[in-house]
Amino acid sequence: METGKSPRHDPGVDLRALGNTPQDFARDLLSNLYYERGTTVESASAQDMYDSLARTVRDRLAERRARTAAAHYQANPRWLYYLSAEYMLGRQLEQNLLYTGTTDLAREAVPDFDTTAAQDVEPGLGNGGLGRLAACLLDSLATMDLPAVGYGIRYDLGIFKQDLDAGGQVERPDDWAFQGNPWEFPAPDDNQVVGFYGKVTSVDGRREWEPAETVLGEPSHMLVPGYGTDTVNIVRLWRARAAQGSFDLTRFAHGQYAEAVADVVRSENISKVLYPDDSTDLGRELRLKQQYFLVSCSLRDIIRRFSFRNDGNWDEFAAKTTIQLNDTHPVLAIPELMRLLVDEYELDWDRAWRITHDTFGYTCHTLLPEALETWPVATIENLLPRHLEIIYEINARFLAEVSERFPGDVARIQRMSLVQEEPERRIRMANLAVVGSRAVNGVAALHSQLLAETTLRDFAELWPGRFHNVTNGVTPRRFVKIANPALSDLISSALGSDAWLRDLSLLQGLEPFAADDAFRARWREIKRANKLTLGVAPDFLTDVIVKRFHEYKRQLLKLLHTITLYQRIRAGETPAPRTVVFAGKAAPGYWAVKDVIRLINAVAATVNNDPAVAPYLKVFFPANYNVTLGQRIYPAADLSEQISLAGKEASGTGNMKLALNGAVTIGTLDGANVEIRDRVGADNFFLFGLDAAEAATLRSSDYRPRDYYERDDELRAAVDAIGDGTFAGGDRQAFGGVLASLLDRDEYLTLADFRSYLDAQAEVEKVWLDAEAWTAKSILNTARSGYFSSDRTIADYTRTIWGLDPVRVNP
């Protein structure tokens, strides 16, 4: 199914030469060690053994993949193609061992299994919640036997590896595939050609783009198995390669070594890192190149796959194909598909537009107007001249529809136009996504409501039936079964089976155990052991705020509380012992929150080195937050901090992972917090702060953060400690930017919510001191979080937007 080359696998032919007895597994492991790594048991390194083990497991998945492809070819189903700039897949070995049922076989066959497994490296293909969600959805699609392919970019260096130097974030290359990646299948013979720059001419009445520069998109794919099924889907990743002949041998012979490889470097930079810094013109152009590279390669591949069984019958394309755009990064797919249909396949505009519009769905992940992506017209005109023409044509036809529906409403037309005119002409990618898609969805009930009422209000008024909600979810296989095996075993024992891993609603069967003394005791033992694994004090309240750093997520509010606790202890109070865990990355150019990271670590250094404070408070900031680190943090957490300003967070998925692992949430009514609180119960959630409407009203008024500062003694003391050098060796200027953000702007109402937050934290402490009451709340958070499975998310997408049918793979 991947290449369309003969011979295809006959589903009646059994490829299963692979056995799952200990002898079979050991034989296959040795075979890979000898014939793939070219070494022996006696001389094998840990990396040799890991690679051989990975290939042995991969072979078993590949056999399932062959049967899956055969079943898909036979069924000719409607396909989902998921386009995403990010996939945070996490380490592959443990999951693939679980999904192939070979964990025990591997432990028996590999002498030092733990050392071998430690060589597994998390693919550097994502950064935050966007990528973690995408990975969860792929897992659920395969688990539910739904035909799907994920498309992304195979970044050489990922986003970056975060180190801390003097408390500040330092970005290092994340060379995640330096030792190779045994989980992927390169396909260099399936290259796609991608063009940039050039000119557009008219030929026989049709527009023809002549790119001035081309690069090759080299695909590889990684296998995405389902849990409890033989279905194995794929995620197809594109890597930029220079076209043949790009190396200048003449210049190299004359010692001009850098010039000789300049074209190669320029081409391959496209897939070098995730989200290249766009603070310069060259950086912005590279990021746009990256986005177009993804969609151009992917659409050609999608059309190739469609042609296998449908023989170019374009009237069937939208019936057999649905493409989901994960945020605005892949939105250039809309004009690119129009270009392919109109220019290359010579369809008329109206027919091409019906196909395009009926094919795409768009998931919006933000409410922040400043986060809605736009591109300068001049940049698109230079890089993708034909696409700009197509966008203009789409816009002209769309605005004619708006004018007919709302005659004379010039302001509305200006707001809805795909082209922003002032202060600079830019293309609004979110507007293009809505116009070019048949369905638009938010990712939590509140987010979807606010999306339709505020951010995309004009479009929702024009096309109310186009807007949907699909609340995010996470996979319990990775984030409970793998991340928290002891808790998983306890849950399965209590429920009588592990069927909950495929039907998370079954967790509600845990509710009676919240009143069971022995069960609560075992629950606490597991949490304590998980804290020891993380390396935090096992008897302290583990208070966790782990997420991407952004001002609206308000890590600074958590830090003000931490400073207040420190000052209370110094004044003689003895609160319940607490470890505050911060983790997350800041975008390289986001200096405001990078200063917050530096301040957090300065506070940590002061707190953790004060013997008077040590019995009551510790601050922990582990570097390089990713899926692997998250799998250690979530099981250890007691308190989940979800404290963004109400109305700013789209959904969140960390809040779900933490609740599933028994953390109790303290949070605002923002994103999926609203639904978490509704489902776990108000008594099992610590609520504080302004709601979205109150926050919007206050932000639109003459908000004066200094008023809150001046009338709250504890708030003033905490803020003053930042400004007087308490955490900077007396240097009063060290954190001047943070101080100004609080007192002069406070855009996200941190000071306004401070006292409400401290009151809620006092209630947290009161409940924590009653171990039985806290444990009951913890159990109920897990028991009532079944809704937040990514399987339910996929079921919602399938029912409301995608219209997919499962294809069973014969065992």
UniProtKB/TrEMBL annotation:
Keyword Transit peptide included in the entry's annotation: no
Single GO BP term: glycogen catabolic process
EC number(s) recorded for this UniProt protein: 2.4.1.1
PROSITE patterns (alphabetical): PHOSPHORYLASE (PS00102)
Cellular component GO terms held in the UniProt record: cytoplasm
MF terms (GO), sorted A to Z: glycogen phosphorylase activity; pyridoxal phosphate binding
Gene3D superfamilies according to UniProt: Glycogen Phosphorylase B (3.40.50.2000)
N6-(pyridoxal phosphate)lysine PTM positions: 657
Membrane-spanning intervals of the chain: none
Listed InterPro entries: Glycg_phsphrylas, Glyco_trans_35, Pyridoxal_P_attach_site
Pfam entry (one): Phosphorylase
Cofactor(s) this protein requires: pyridoxal 5'-phosphate
Keyword set, alphabetical order: Carbohydrate metabolism, Glycosyltransferase, Pyridoxal phosphate, Transferase
Keyword Phosphoprotein belongs to the record: no
Reactions it catalyzes: [(1->4)-alpha-D-glucosyl](n) + phosphate = [(1->4)-alpha-D-glucosyl](n-1) + alpha-D-glucose 1-phosphate
Chain's role: Phosphorylase is an important allosteric enzyme in carbohydrate metabolism. Enzymes from different sources differ in their regulatory mechanisms and in their natural substrates. However, all known phosphorylases share catalytic and structural properties.
Membership in a protein family: Belongs to the glycogen phosphorylase family.
Protein name: Alpha-1,4 glucan phosphorylase
